[in-house]
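Pipeline run #58 for the internal structure catalog. This entry was flagged by the ingest filter as a single-chain record with no existing model, so it goes straight to prediction. Upstream metadata was stripped on purpose; only the residue string is passed forward. Reviewer on rotation: M.T. Logging verbosity set to normal.
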Amino acid sequence: MSAHAVTVAEKDIQFELEQHGERLQLRALHRSNYGAIAADWNGAELKRRISGGRRQPLARAVGMHKDPALSLLDANAGLGRDGYTLAALGASVTLVERNPNIVALLRNAHQRVLADAQAQAIGQRIEIIASEARAVFGGERHWDVVYLDPMYPDDGKAALPSKEMQILRDLTGGDEDADLLLEPALACARQRVVVKRPLKAPWLGGIEPSLSLRSTQLRFDVYLKSAIRVARPAHDFHIP
């Protein structure tokens, strides 16, 4: 294992990128009992999610059960699992991430997928942009769907997040500007904006969605461009 010279340090928080064979991973040096994290797109979890097809909540929320060849902007890409799942189901996906260390993990995962003959076609439907989401929204490009998955702030009431989520929160400081994303995202989307939220979280920016798709642990708030100006109650559909 060899370590890159890239280290992020602020007060007592330190990170280091490590190369482990073909896999790039990020270690939180201030959490010595935590393992390193990486963007892995060929594991059992993602294969299970992809096998759920276009009727699963995420794919239905973005509209893939009607049009599998959507163009989609994943504006809070994180480690890219949702974006990769949608690309595997047929969408053309643009992953946007602002943290340079997470971008490095995404690019490494993308390179490994492109080198895999069985997954290469999926990788060819993915592009990665290192940028603030709002800068991309303000450009000339538009996508059929904009997908937002901002990190929900830690209010001290919820159960402890996974070790991976704790590392990402340490690294990014959370998405405190998340409420400012919805309106520019609507201007960038041709058809809809989808926001992934914890079940009890408030609407993003306090703006009521056209409808919400709920599962047991989270919900997808859907803002339809054709209906967002119409003041009406949001409708919830429970998905077992």
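catalog note: The mean pLDDT is 86.
catalog note: The domain at 53-238 is CATH 3.40.50.150 (Rossmann fold).
status: ready for reviewer M.T.
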